[in-house]
């Protein structure tokens, strides 16, 4: 199966079969890496990394991933490009395609990664936008599959803000036949169009998508409980209102007790301890957050090796 030359802006850019193939390659590359075998699959290739938002995990995992695959990554900070201000997005895309073999962009607006993909004739990867965080979902699904040995039929509960991470999880989980129950305050539900698309995918894959406002109901019997920060970068002005609205949506020991006894807890990090998740749960035996963080590296290596 080849994905060479493809963009990855959304989890929905991959078919269910392609998604599982990326996970299979990630598993193989992780195993080989742990054994000291790092094949130079991307020798001589360069990835430009555009950051409008800073990130620990995204920068380190992409940069390390390219190095482990024999390639090179160039970090472009916000002040280096000033997308849309110093230079237009199409002009940046048309310049970069002359120098590098791929572009990863972590942006505020999803339209920015779409424009990069439209004007650059090299693969573009969405490292995060306001609509999706597809690379996070690759790492999440890899982490869940490692723990349970499979994905189909598992039940995941998303508790908190119906944000970009939630959107990508809905699409990815639907493609692998998982059931997802989302619980958010009424004003913070995931985008209806993405929910509708996830339900369409799930109906064909044997999964189910539920969206509601009851955190305990969503968590009941879940194999996976997932949360994210309530106040994302760029939403600081909404902080007070969101903290109040989300007060009943903390992932704590009481909520986790509603889940299956084998349940695991996920968080894409960074975490605001004592807000969306308690210290007891984040640092507890059911937490797989550091496995998630590590698996961003292996999942993205698989993606890079297949599309560049």
From TrEMBL:
Chief subcellular location: cytoplasm
Binding, carbamoyl phosphate: 82, 106, 133-136, 268-269, 296
Pathway stated in the Swiss-Prot or TrEMBL entry: Amino-acid biosynthesis; L-arginine biosynthesis; L-arginine from L-ornithine and carbamoyl phosphate: step 1/3
Record-annotated Aspartate/ornithine carbamoyltransferase Asp/Orn-binding domain positions: 153-306
Matches recorded under Gene3D superfamilies: Aspartate/ornithine carbamoyltransferase
Keyword Cytoplasm applies: yes
Superkingdom field: Bacteria
Keywords associated with the record: Cytoplasm, Transferase
Domain Aspartate/ornithine carbamoyltransferase carbamoyl-P binding, first and last residues per copy: 6-146
An MF annotation (GO) of this entry: ornithine carbamoyltransferase activity
Record's keyword annotation contains Transmembrane: no
GO CC annotation: cytoplasm
The protein's Enzyme Commission number: 2.1.3.3
PANTHER family xref list: ORNITHINE CARBAMOYLTRANSFERASE, MITOCHONDRIAL, ORNITHINE TRANSCARBAMYLASE, MITOCHONDRIAL
Family per record: Belongs to the aspartate/ornithine carbamoyltransferase superfamily. OTCase family.
Name of the protein: Ornithine carbamoyltransferase
């Amino acid at each position: 199966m080849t994905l060479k030359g493809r963009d990855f802006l959304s989890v929905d850019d991959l078919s269910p079969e392609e998604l599982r193939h990326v996970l299979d390659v990630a598993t193989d590359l992780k195993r080989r890496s742990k054994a000291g075998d790092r094949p130079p699959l991307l020798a001589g290739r360069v990835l430009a990394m555009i950051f409008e938002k800073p990130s620990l995990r995204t920068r380190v995992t992409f940069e390390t991933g390219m190095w482990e695959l024999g390639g090179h990554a160039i970090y472009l900070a916000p002040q280096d490009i000033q997308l849309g201000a110093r230079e237009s997005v199409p002009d940046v895309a048309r310049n970069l395609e002359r120098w590098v073999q791929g572009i990863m962009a972590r942006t505020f607006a999803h339209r920015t990664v779409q424009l990069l993909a439209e004007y650059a004739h090299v693969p573009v990867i969405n490292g995060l936008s306001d609509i999706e965080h597809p690379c996070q979902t690759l790492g999440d699904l890899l982490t869940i599959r490692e723990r349970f040995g499979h994905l189909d039929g598992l039940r995941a509960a998303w508790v908190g803000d119906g944000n970009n991470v939630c959107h990508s999880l809905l699409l990815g989980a639907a493609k692998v036949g998982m059931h997802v129950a989302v619980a958010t305050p009424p004003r913070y539900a995931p985008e209806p169009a993405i929910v509708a698309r996830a339900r369409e995918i799930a109906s064909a894959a044997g999964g189910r998508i539920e969206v509601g406002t009851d955190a305990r109901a969503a968590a009941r019997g879940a194999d996976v409980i997932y949360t994210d920060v309530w106040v994302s970068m760029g939403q600081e002005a909404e902080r007070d209102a969101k903290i109040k609205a989300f007060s009943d949506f903390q992932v704590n020991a009481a909520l986790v007790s509603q889940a299956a006894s084998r349940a695991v807890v996920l968080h894409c990090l960074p975490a605001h301890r004592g807000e969306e998740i308690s210290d007891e749960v984040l640092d507890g035996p059911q937490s797989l957050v550091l496995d998630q963080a590590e698996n961003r590296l292996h999942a993205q290596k698989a993606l890079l090796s297949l599309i560049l």
